[in-house]
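User: Show me an example of a complex going from sequences to structure tokens.

Assistant: Sure. Here are the input components:
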Amino acid sequence: MAEFPRLEELMAKFPRDQFEVVAIDDSNQKKKILKVVEKTEVSFPVLLDDKSVGRDLYKIRGTPTTYIINQKGLVVFKHLGYVPQMDEMLEKEVRSLLGGPA
Amino acid sequence: MSKRSIIVILVLVAVVAVLAWAFVPRFSEMARQKELDTLRAARDETEPAERMKKLQSFLEQFPRGKYRGYVHGYIFDTYASLMDDTTRAVEYARDILASDESLDQKGQLYPELFSLWVQTGNSDSIVVLAEEVLELPLTNPWVYMGMGYELVEAKLHPTVAVKLCEKAVGLAEDDYDRTYCLATLGMAHLRAGSPEEAVTALEQAKEFCGEEPDEEILRYLGEAQVALGRKDAAIETYLLMMETGEYDDIRSELTGLYVETKGSAEGLDAEIEARRERRMSPAPEFSLRALDGKLVSLSDYKDKVLLLNFMSPT
């Protein structure tokens, strides 16, 4: 959850018609999630994974797991865990996909 | 005793036996899990005094624990790195090595001590300690491998590193052990000036990795292949490395190899891009409800770059 404000920041750096963020809650704890979302005022959708999309389809082995999917729907980046250096990594990755200077 | 009561007793005994058979492994598994959780909690503590307290209470709590060796290592590391008190760390190691802790548990202190000697450039002690540990009947390959790796990293005593890693390979029990022991053996061979042996060991390590070979294995493998003049093989190795990551030094290494073998580096960038695309898999389609009740699908984001963040509220 600590990454919500950072994702919000990342999203603000790119035009919305080119880059978007979607969070998927893996815990099925709707009440808890609602509380956090209210507190941090996220502007991206937070989905409830009641179909085990994360575990079964995306084969995540823990949270947070971050994916970047390119314009063709291909997975270009996957990372388990969160480290502060990741913000820069993600930004670089998105920028290169959008064709800007890396 | 009637026949009937004998049958009842026999049935009861059978039921108890079946229950015990079913649950005892689970209990021991639970105990192991508890030990592992306590270990992790102590390891992840960052405040030095608090970490030391947690580690010491682990040793009291699990007098016959499977992971005591790790804890000795962490205590050593807490003194040496977090508290900056190497004298105390060495004293601790000496005390434990002289204690009646089992050899395999205390054996894990050797790589720690070793690492300290390597860092402080205590060259004679390194060789003496390595020879001493090589004589010990330790069963944990990671002790030998860890010591070998320290030497490889520090570019010291490569032949001693080879001996340590050979011992580690001999003790490896599963593919995971084998991968890293062989990888380190290969690195040691390369440092010792035997690229042929290095390639053999590193190729084997690479095989064990399967689809996603370790970046460090490929790095050393490429270096060994270059040393043997096998430029085409080195190009393949480095291209594989570039498939999953971006390494500026490897890209320039590849540029050089392209120029040497093909006359120019033209086509290198396209080759890397094509390989990366081939490796990418399509993101699985899904439709899930958002908190506001709206149905959201992956296909809603077609033609856009999307960051998907799987998380849980903690």
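The lines above are the inputs; the final block is the predicted structure for all two components together. The first helix of chain A runs from residue 4 to 12.
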